[in-house]
Design brief:
The complex is a heterodimer. Chain A is mostly helical. Helices cover about 80% and strands about 0% of the residues of chain A. Chain A is built from 10 helices and no strands. Chain B is built from 7 helices and 10 strands. Chain B has helices spanning about 55-65, 105-115, 120-135, 150-160, 180-195, 205-215, 245-260, and strands at about 15-25, 30-40, 45-50, 70-75, 80, 90, 165-170, 200-205, 215-220, 225-230. The chains are: A mainly alpha, B alpha/beta.
Chain lengths: ~260, ~270
Amino acid sequence: MIARWAIASLFFACLIGLWQLAVNAQIWSPLLLPSPSNVFIYLWSALEDGTLWEATLVTVQRLLIGYGLGILIGLPLGLLTASFRWSQDTIGVLALGLQTLPSVCWVPLALLWFGQTESAMLFVVVMGTLWSLIIATDTGVRTIPPIYSRAARSMGSSGFHTWTHVILPAALPFLLSGMKQGWAFAWRSLMAAEIYVTILTGFGLGHLLHYGRELSAMDQVIGVMLVIVMIGLAVDKTLFAPVERFLHRRWGTARG
Amino acid sequence: MESQVSATDTVPTKLVLEHVSKWFRTSSLHVQALDDVTLRIAEGEFVCLVGPSGCGKSTLLNLIAGLDRADRGTVQADGQTISGPGPHRLMMFQEAALFPWLTVLGNVLFGLKLVKGLSASERREKAEYFLELVGLKRFMHSNVHELSGGMRQRVALARSLAPNPSVLLMDEPFGALDALTREQLYGDIQRIWSQHRKTIVFVTHNVREAVCLGDRVILFSPNPGRIREEFSIPLPRPRDINSVDLARYSTEITRVLKGYVQNEVAG
């Protein structure tokens, strides 16, 4: 465990070191490539004056609400498409088609429908999450060995009980990977929306990034990018990783 | 201990199948799985259904379990037509259909939670009792994947026994196990059967296994599945699968079976 930490720390220390070396070599203008310490100074000041916190809060809130809505709608729809042929031929095909649409493509439509509002942001996030979640749920349910529900039925389980006690838990590994993918898509679509659209109800990380570019403040651009990466990592490690570890332990699929 | 040989007037009849036929239709296939099967099984009887694959013996179990419906004929348990699955007739499958998202204990509790009128502590007590019975109590907090194939089938057995069904339907439950593990389980199942007196319908293509376990061995032939012959096995219990007496019966039954099917001979 300590060795793993040591290797990881060393790796990232080396990355920062290389970055510093590149800055020292002065191949690129410092305007284009700020030093690690400059980025750190920006992050520190943005933390101190509250802009970073505020932007992070706004973004994460949008993300959670949109992602939550996506799951709330996508999960039942995925179960539906897996259960009936008619829903597979309709909703299933729709999901398959729209999943291939890059979520940034929803931004113009969202703007025209909702204007520069919070709803536009949420709409884009939901559209980014929903379709891949439907497909992951559908696949998950279809991959369950039929013997599980037969065994459960033999013991007297039926209807709703079978869904909540057999189908959903049996599909959990697929649901989780679907939710992870949905999370990544939600992040991508929200950042696209925030960079694209300025709205007055909240100033998110995407906006911070956008204004960094407008002001040619490269330390801000890189700093915000780092923050976005860190949030993504933190969510993965705190939200998904424990569930994944549990699944691996239970199902016996862990490697090392 | 001498066991009853067939359904007689003194022992109540548990299961009655009369003129049962069953077809399977898919887009490319139309096969008759069962043709005019009539069978009576007494309460507490251990009946083995033997035949090559495709003779409809698993289909028959599904009908008794209520997981499937007969196209013609009637299937009754305790004088009532079977209309669906119920906790009185539990099925045990070839692959341990244990749920990987639950622990060993959780799996045994699954069926118990579907039995009405049990408190949490009663369920727990029963689950532990049946895990003890199959010798796996100390593994109750283990995950399913940590168990060997034989242990998994033992857990599946405990899971099927725990809700106290009167009929246990076993669909080649030991088919995927190695010979040594199977022999242990023959001992276990006979011990449990004599203690708890379930009616057991046991499907296998292994004639020796059938002779070792059954009061009666019913021979099926395939395409379509029909009952061909019936053998009573009046050997004392517990039976050892390697005994010479047992071998005499299985040799005889295998010879008859070979007469009905040229390929896919069991044994």
